[in-house]
From TrEMBL, chain A:
<feature type="compositionally biased region" description="Basic and acidic residues">
    <location>
        <begin position="33"/>
        <end position="45"/>
    </location>
</feature>
<feature type="region of interest" description="Disordered">
    <location>
        <begin position="131"/>
        <end position="178"/>
    </location>
</feature>
<feature type="domain" description="RRM">
    <location>
        <begin position="50"/>
        <end position="128"/>
    </location>
</feature>
<keyword id="KW-0507">mRNA processing</keyword>
<keyword id="KW-0539">Nucleus</keyword>
<dbReference type="GO" id="GO:0000339">
    <property type="term" value="F:RNA cap binding"/>
</dbReference>
<dbReference type="GO" id="GO:0005634">
    <property type="term" value="C:nucleus"/>
</dbReference>
<comment type="similarity">
    <text>Belongs to the RRM NCBP2 family.</text>
</comment>
<dbReference type="Pfam" id="PF00076">
    <property type="entry name" value="RRM_1"/>
</dbReference>
TrEMBL record, chain B:
<protein>
    <recommendedName>
        <fullName>Cap binding protein</fullName>
    </recommendedName>
</protein>
<feature type="domain" description="MIF4G">
    <location>
        <begin position="58"/>
        <end position="200"/>
    </location>
</feature>
<dbReference type="GO" id="GO:0006397">
    <property type="term" value="P:mRNA processing"/>
</dbReference>
<feature type="domain" description="MIF4G-like type 1">
    <location>
        <begin position="324"/>
        <end position="514"/>
    </location>
</feature>
<dbReference type="GO" id="GO:0005846">
    <property type="term" value="C:nuclear cap binding complex"/>
</dbReference>
<keyword id="KW-0539">Nucleus</keyword>
<feature type="region of interest" description="Disordered">
    <location>
        <begin position="1"/>
        <end position="36"/>
    </location>
</feature>
<dbReference type="InterPro" id="IPR027159">
    <property type="entry name" value="CBP80"/>
</dbReference>
<dbReference type="InterPro" id="IPR015174">
    <property type="entry name" value="MIF4G-like_typ-2"/>
</dbReference>
Length: 178, 848
């Protein structure tokens, strides 16, 4: 039954949205809540998920710091740092895998949206880490969100890479300080 | 999904003005057609929001909902929504129980069938909760019924309470260690005030008679109270008498009976209505019979505290009362509602925090001073008016859970997060309250249970990490000079270390005033500690960061050690390593080292740490590669196995948190054994007891113990799965008895190590007896504090296993023992379990 307050241990709109697009193509946006699942459809991949995607980390946050915080919700089985595809340096996300599903849910409830290294971090339930997913999918190797970010974020490499490039080009063409 | 948070957002809440791309569409958007909310949603929204807002008049809200329901009673959707949601609010948002009850009382004169239906449903619900042993829900539904006492025929809830009491008596006579009976009495005592504050009258005698009966059970001091005393004190005294919740409650209610049941803090939303229109409501209101509720006999056990609950407050000794004193029944009534709210709503800490901030909305108007009233301003409060700060009362309740012994209901980080959110929602109100709580906890850290000291430390550092690491360290500046073995200094060092682990050394140093600077050494900023066998090491010895005595110990091995490092780095096959390792062992033998495997292990493990120093993943893959050899070390020599720990902790001695983590992983690989870790900490590194002062040593031992106890628990849970075939049960029983043996041995080793320190009989200690009496007393205190923690842990774990195993037996009994014996073939085990339980009770008592 629906609880009288929202639960914080539900997958994010991002995750649900992504799945919807995959299933129905971009245009369909029907709400499929409450629809009966047909037998061919796979079970909810998050039913026993013990892995979390963790986002909005600083590029400088270390594995040890992440471990220190996330171990408060249970023993960590594996921690995979998100890396820049080209430079193999941290690019601001990671996967934390617990031994238990419940620990991952608790982490959503108690740690997602709190601070690590003085940044509000985001957690999302994840069906499980697969090799290759540790790399940024942005054009220049980092995360897509860091490509076109027009706010300056010192913890994540300054301006978005594409924006920074543009600024640099402008500077080169028109001279410094313009 | 729920409506709770929706209010904040609104349809355009997430719109980001910085983004220009939608600007042109903006004006052309067609105006949305006015949307009439379906009535059942309107009922839902109003009911969920009842009493929530300090800006709305609660009596108007109540009559508006009542009117909606009465006017639209034909609408099945509305009826269903109202009935379902009302009862759901009762068990999910306990603050609102009196207000939901008030709605029914208002509806009753016009539509008595509404109350009838609710009562039927409530009775059905409570029946289910009783049968499942869900005692919190039983308590909350009972409270709801007690608030409706005025609608009930005859004696209302009292016969039910009396029957509950007779069950408690049965349980108490059966065993002196019974905790379930106490829980029942607590439920009775927490129901009485609501029945007495209800619209019903004339139950004074009845309540007093019931109180007389509960007195014997509630007032008898529990044998195990001392085990969960949060302030057992130390050698210099400081002990505080623990006050059991149930005992306090009994006294407070007796006091309240003497003051004609004033019960000032309980809201009376049902009263307002009566004053307004005296015409028909009160008179014409139809009364209802409480549907029959059968309390099973014996009652079902269920989740409940196994050890007595102690009333805990961080605001007890202030010169102005900011929370109700323990002589006032309000302290128990407020605390109970708050604790339930906190523990029920763990699925949404934001909702919990909002309830805490809005606490004053749910109790009678005169209960608190205005929100965020500064502590100093309380002196100006008129004589006779309340000085209770709602935020202090709320924060106090969170701390009572965070610092609950033997364990809290949820993971401790939940309570951290509630305080963080509360602080975010209302910083001006909450932050000063937290400040006073921190000061009080720190001031009393010397006499506090050691486990609680570490919970406090963990919360403190985590909390600061969410708020820019700002704390007024200048307040404690005098304590910087204290010796390391002083509990306050140890707390300070531990807290700083924890802060660094969540951040980094330079950042934390930057938050500290000048006198604290030496507490964070330069060496902590170094990412990769030196490989001690390299010549670089001379430098660090010169600046005095390493104990100089190590120099002579390692120098003879430096060449082969460097070779080991080179080979490991080159990922050479393991066989190549034998030669340099043998060289070390031969040299060691020629130097007369008793166990030559020890220095070779040191070189090997130090090289692994050095190569893996970049991150946890690096050291893990390094360990993975060296797994076989590491495993073989322990098999050959126990001393060498413990050397692995020494080498890891020595390499990471500036960042012990990393060392502890590596040790933990080595345990998972079974390269280390739990006993070896405990022996390392409580024998090898113990000294005169100085080892006990370090927070990371406690962390290491306590996480090792938890690993072992969790394993035992997992086996018990697996064994108790319904429908497990008999042969598998037998296998699991065997494993269980083996693991319980191991657990017992582990606790015995801990006991051995600590008893020496606590009793002052460690060899070194005797020698220096006259040199430093004060220091020695402090170390004895540390020994005693450690001992309490692990004795309690042992008692709790053993009791848990007993209880869980015997619960299964009871279930089997109920469903027919013969069948169970046939299926499981464990008829004997049934008998054994019962026999052991007796001895277990004695064992629990013996600990004191």
């Amino acid at each position: 039954m629906q609880t009288t307050v929202d639960r914080l241990d539900k997958p994010s709109a991002y995750y649900l949205g992504r799945n919807k697009k995959r299933k129905y193509g971009r245009d369909r946006d029907d709400d499929d809540v409450g629809r009966q699942r047909t037998p061919e459809e796979p079970e909810d991949p998050l039913k026993d998920a013990a892995t979390l995607y963790v986002g909005n980390l600083s590029f400088y946050t270390t594995e040890e710091q992440i471990h220190e915080l996330f171990a408060k919700c249970g023993e960590i089985k594996r921690l995979v740092m998100g890396l820049d595809r080209f430079h193999k340096t941290p690019c601001g996300f990671c996967f934390v895998e617990y031994y238990n599903h419940q620990d991952a849910l608790d982490c959503m409830k108690y740690i997602g949206g709190t601070k690590l290294d003085e940044r509000i971090i985001r957690t999302d339930l994840d069906p499980g880490f697969q090799e290759g997913r540790q790399y940024g999918r942005g054009k220049s190797g980092g995360q897509v969100r860091d490509e076109y970010r027009d706010e300056y974020d010192p913890g994540r490499g300054g301006y978005g890479r594409a924006i920074a490039e543009e600024r640099q080009k402008e500077e080169d063409e028109y001279g410094k300080g313009r | 999904m729920a409506d709770y948070d929706r209010r904040n957002g609104g349809p355009r809440g997430g719109y980001n003005n910085n983004r220009k791309r939608h600007d042109d569409e903006h004006d052309r958007r067609p105006q949305r057609r006015r949307y009439e909310e379906p009535l059942h949603l309107k009922v839902r929204k109003q009911l969920l929001g009842v009493a929530e807002s300090p800006l709305k008049r609660t009596d108007e809200e109540i009559s508006s909902i009542a009117k909606l329901v009465v006017d639209n009673y034909d609408d099945e959707g509305i009826r269903r929504q109202f009935f379902d949601l009302s009862l759901q609010i009762v068990v999910e948002q306990p603050f609102k129980i009196p207000f939901v009850a008030a709605i029914l009382i208002v509806i009753n004169p016009q539509k008595p069938e509404v109350a009838q239906e609710i009562l039927t449903r409530a009775a059905k619900a409570i029946q289910e909760y009783l049968e499942a042993g869900h005692w919190r829900e039983v308590k909350l539904v009972l409270r709801f019924l007690a608030c409706l006492q005025g609608l009930l025929e005859e004696d209302g809830v009292f016969p039910l309470l009396e029957e509950l009491f007779s069950r408690a008596v049965d349980l108490q006579t059966a065993s002196s260690e019974d905790s379930l009976g106490l829980e029942l009495v607590k439920i009775i005592l927490l129901t009485i005030p609501y029945a007495m504050a209800s619209s019903a009258t004339g139950f004074e005698e009845r309540a007093l008679a019931l109180l007389d009966k509960t007195d014997i059970i509630a007032s008898t001091p529990h044998a195990l109270e001392a085990l969960v005393n949060p302030y057992p004190g130390n050698d210099e005294g400081d002990a505080q008498e623990p006050q059991s919740i149930i005992n306090l409650l009994q006294k407070q209610l007796q006091g309240e009976a003497g003051q004609s049941w004033k019960l000032a803090c309980i809201p009376r939303p049902w009263n307002v209505r009566k004053e307004e229109d005296t015409t028909d409501t009160a008179v014409a209101s139809k009364k209802h019979a409480l549907p029959e509720i059968n309390i099973p006999s014996p009652v079902a056990p269920g989740p409940r505290p196994m050890l007595p609950e102690i009333y805990f407050s961080v605001y007890a000794d202030q010169d102005i009362e900011t929370v109700p004193s323990t002589s006032d029944v309000a302290s128990s009534i407020l605390r109970d509602s708050l604790v339930d709210t906190i523990n029920i709503l763990d699925c949404n800490r934001n909702a919990t925090a909002k309830f805490l901030i809005d606490l004053d909305c749910y109790f009678s108007a005169e209960t608190f001073v205005k929100r965020a009233t500064q502590f100093d301003k309380l002196r100006n409060v008129e004589e006779g008016r309340s000085t209770w700060k709602p935020e202090d009362v709320a924060v106090d309740a969170v701390f009572s859970q965070l610092l609950q012994l033997p364990m809290a209901e949820h993971k401790l980080v939940y309570y951290h997060s509630v305080l963080t959110e509360a602080c975010k929602i209302a910083p001006a109100a909450i932050a000063p309250s937290l400040g006073r709580a921190i000061r009080w906890l720190y001031k009393n850290v010397d006499g506090m249970d050691l486990e609680l000291v570490y919970r406090f430390m963990d919360w403190f550092s985590h909390h600061l990490s969410n708020f820019g690491f700002t704390w007024k360290w200048t307040e404690w500046v005098d304590d910087v000079q204290l010796p390391l073995i002083h509990p306050k200094k140890a707390f300070m060092m531990g807290a700083l270390e924890k802060e660094i682990r969540l951040s980094f050394a330079a950042r934390i140093r930057g938050t500290l005033p000048e006198p604290y600077q030496p507490l964070i050494s330069e060496a902590k900023e170094k990412d990769t500690p030196d490989f001690k066998y390299s010549s670089d090491r001379k430098h660090s010895i010169l600046v005095g960061l390493e104990p100089t005595k190590l120099i002579s110990k390692e120098m003879p091995y430096s060449e082969p050690a460097k070779e080991i490092l080179r080979l490991l780095r080159a990922k050479a096959p393991d066989t190549d390593l034998q030669s340099p390792l043998s060289t070390i062992e031969e040299t060691a033998e020629s130097l007369g080292v008793t166990d030559p495997l020890v220095p070779s292990t040191d070189a090997y493990v130090t090289a692994i740490c050095f190569l893996g120093s970049k991150s946890l993943s690096h050291v893990l893959s390094q360990i993975e590669r060296c797994k076989d050899r590491l495993l073989s070390i322990g098999a050959k020599s126990e001393l060498a196995r413990r050397q692995i720990i020494t080498s890891v902790m020595d390499y990471w001695h500036e960042k012990p948190g990393i060392g502890v983590n590596v040790v933990d992983k080595l345990l998972n690989y079974t390269i280390l054994t739990p006993i070896s870790v405990v022996l390392w900490a409580l024998s090898d590194q113990l000294g005169k007891g100085e080892g006990l002062v370090l927070s990371h040593v406690f962390e290491m031992v306590s996480s090792t113990v938890t690993k072992v106890t969790n394993r035992v628990r997992q086996i018990v849970v697996a064994r108790n799965q319904p429908g497990l075939p008999g042969d598998q049960v037998a296998i699991l029983d065997e494993t269980l008895s083996k693991e319980r043996d191991e657990m017992g041995k582990l606790f015995a080793v801990i006991e051995d190590g600590l008893v020496g320190v606590a009793g002052g009989s460690v060899d070194d200690m005797a020698e220096s007896a006259d040199q430093d009496l004060k220091g020695e007393a402090m170390l004895r205190g540390w020994g005693g504090r450690w001992l309490r923690v692990f004795r309690r842990k042992m008692a709790v774990e053993e009791a848990w296993v007993q209880e869980t195993m015997s619960f299964v037996v009871q279930v089997v009994d109920a469903s027919g023992l013969e069948i169970a014996v046939e299926q499981n073939g464990n008829g004997e085990a049934v008998g054994d379990g019962a026999g052991e339980e007796m001895s277990e009770d004695e064992a629990l008592a013996g600990i004191l």
